[in-house]
Amino acid sequence: MEWQLVENSQRVNVHPYEEAQGFQRLLDLPGYDVTALVEKSGKSAAHIYARLSLLQLIPTVAEAFVQERITASHANLIARLPQEHQQATFDNCWRKDWSDKEAHLLPAKFLSASIQTNLYLNLAEAPFDREDTTLNPTAGACVIPLIPLMPGPRSPAARQESSSLLLHLSLSTGRGSLSSVSVAAAT
Length: 187
Fold this sequence. Notes:
The protein is 44% helix and 10% strand. By secondary structure, it is mainly alpha-helical. The chain has 3 domains: 2-55, Orthogonal Bundle (Arc Repressor Mutant, subunit A), CATH 1.10.10.2830; 57-95 and 104-118, no CATH class; 134-187, no CATH class. A hairpin with a 5-residue loop joins β3 (166-172) and β4 (178-184).
């Protein structure tokens, strides 16, 4: 069975959802992790994580995706959302104009804009103090304050060293991988 799953993951015409299911079946076997899948399938870790995220789709959306009523772009956008928001977002994929007999699928960029507008919050407009660490003690503040540079007289060499100080933050993307953000501190 293992070799069949690996072989299926390498086929050109496999549906992304079926590929995700195959990856998950392999991950359920002893000794398999994403690194092993990368080695055996020849796919990147990002590709595998993107496919696995499709398994977060609620059944009605997954069925529509498998039946190719929505595109992979639509499915990926919806899969990133909490399941309680997926059905309403899926319903927003469609529009019926006055001259249409049936609703048609909107481009994924419109769905993305709808998600951005209707589901995401703009922290700049938040009605609470974003630097308040007591909002969620386990998560901390929404904004990480920069650490001030050491005060007092410094040599030109020390000033140069501190001016190139980088604050490096590791942020989880929610898919098990890490991305980095660097912020330069000014003197």
